[in-house]
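Reagents: none. Just compute today. Major facilitator transporter.
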Amino acid sequence: MDKRVYLLTIVSFVVGLVELILGGILDLVAVDLEVSLGKVGMLISIFSLVFAIFGPILLTATAKVERKKLTLISLLIFFLANLLAIFSTGYFMLMIARIISAMSGSLLIALCVTIASNIVLKQYRARAIGIVFMGISASLVLGVPIGLMLGNAFGWRAPFLMITILTAISFIGIYFFMERMNPKPSISLKEQLKTLKNGKLLLIQLTSFLFLAGHLTLYAYLTPFLQMTMGLDGTWISLMYLIFGIAAIIGGGVGGMLSDRFGPQKTIIGIIIVFALSLFTIPYTTSVLPLFLLVMMAWSMLSWAITPAIQSYLIASAPETSDIQQSLNNSALHFGIAFGSMIGGVVIERATVEMNATVGGVLVLVSLLIISLTMKAKKQNAVSGDFTSEAMKEYKAN
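Predicted 3D structure written out:
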């Protein structure tokens, strides 16, 4: 397989870092910019919301631009946006930096997937795309602990400095090692959204949205949760995030094995039930550290264990448009991150941080209800009648 795929994985990792990197340094940013924790948390929501909305839009709008050139332009804008974050002197300035980095980052992820699938032989396409998404998954898991460690050691701007350096390295790598790549016809955003006229597919995507929203309601505010309920300092919190990250990475593999062994439907139901229980119980385990660690590790593992099962369920439910559904699912996940961190910010402002876990658990239970409806529904074709045969032929040809 073409080793340049790993260069694209580095790009996807760098872009993914920006999304949740504020999660571990909420208190540092809040103190420096003189705003509340909830308000800083909204910067995570804003990033995820812009990312989810503008990814498909910008990819469609730039469909005729040569791919290498577009990637370099996007990397440059992403670099400047994070440079702006480093020199932000106020909340509004940092918000603008987050919006610009989200827009350029959403396009970069789409380009990485597209380029990866085109530079390898046909039989390696799925593997190449999977490797690119590994970069995203790793960044979402490791972004918070990396931000926490750098932030505590050098200040909250240090993580953004690291991101600008990695972006510059990525720019150089793309410039020298990627050749020009002409764009190919793609399915329009309108046609992609038409596939969601299939009720079953819409409900599966909604499940991903609600599940991750429930997770982020607490996870985006895990630092203040650990500080306020357990009185942990920066070193202990860094250790907690490290344990959380390792468990989450393991969870992805476990989820895949469970899905293969028991099928995606049973796996999704089981994971959601245990995940909800872990969220509801975690505030009551903070007085016993070993018990808290066990519950936290279960919560962490299951937060990523569901992803392979959801992806398998989408493929089984919509084999004709599986690639499109994967793309839409990525947007659903980022909408979930945005919504969950926003809800968490409201809860921590109006109640206590312990309530974040309860509210998150309720959202997860709603996702259980939603996914149950898809399993009772009759099988339908994943492609609605409005998804034109000509568009499908053009999509399959490329």
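DSSP finds 16 helices and no strands in the chain.
Action item: order primers for follow-up constructs.
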